[in-house]
Amino acid sequence: MSAERDDPMLGAIVDGRYQIEERVGAGGMGTVYRATQLNVRRDVAIKIVNAIALQNPETVRRFENEAHIISQLRHPNTLKLIDYGRTDDGMLYLVTELLEGRPLSRVIREEAPLDPRRVLK
After folding, report:
1. Beta bridge partners of 13
2. Is the bond preceding residue 8 a cis peptide, omega within 30 degrees?
3. Among the listed residues 41, 38, 44, 54, the one whose alpha carbon sits nearest the alpha carbon of residue 87
4. CA–CA dist 26, 41 (Å, integer)
5. Are 46 and 15 in contact (CB under 8 A)?
6. What is the DSSP secondary-structure string of 41-92?
7. For the purposes of burial, counting CB atoms within 10 Å of the CB of 65, is it exposed (0-12), middle (13-18) or buried (19 or more)?
8. What's the Cα-to-Cα distance from 99 to each of 5, 51, 60, rounded to whole Å?
9. Cβ contact 49:29 at 8 Å
């Protein structure tokens, strides 16, 4: 069985509003999932801080700072924050619009070197 199938978050409902559908990626601070915002039935991305990171106050501060910074962005080429919160059991999450496409790391790996005009755009 794959690690993704063993993920206990798959199918879970976060804060009564977001149903986890699929794992998108993971990093040192947490995991990003595709989820459904239940009240409006739209796909969103939800980043959930992992339990180990929650034990570090500096990591929690960085995550909260990330939510604040994203909430201030006002440009068509930046991610839009939908929600941010902490569940009753202490789980921190951040919800953004779900972007479709390839990760930049994959584009670089597959197409490097990139045309400077494309990079600037």
Report:
1. 19
2. no
3. 54
4. 24
5. no
6. TEEEEEEEE-HHHHT-HHHHHHHHHHHHHHHH--STTSPPEEEEEE-TT--E
7. exposed
8. 23, 26, 25
9. yes
How many residues appear in the chain?
A: 121
- Provide the residue-wise pLDDT of the chain in tens; the chain has 121 residues: 445 668 899 999 999 999 999 999 988 889 999 999 999 999 999 999 988 888 999 989 999 998 999 999 998 888 899 999 999 888 999 999 998 888 888 999 999 999 999 888 7
Amino acid at 10: L
CA–CA dist 96, 88 (Å, integer)? 21
Total-model pTM: 0.81
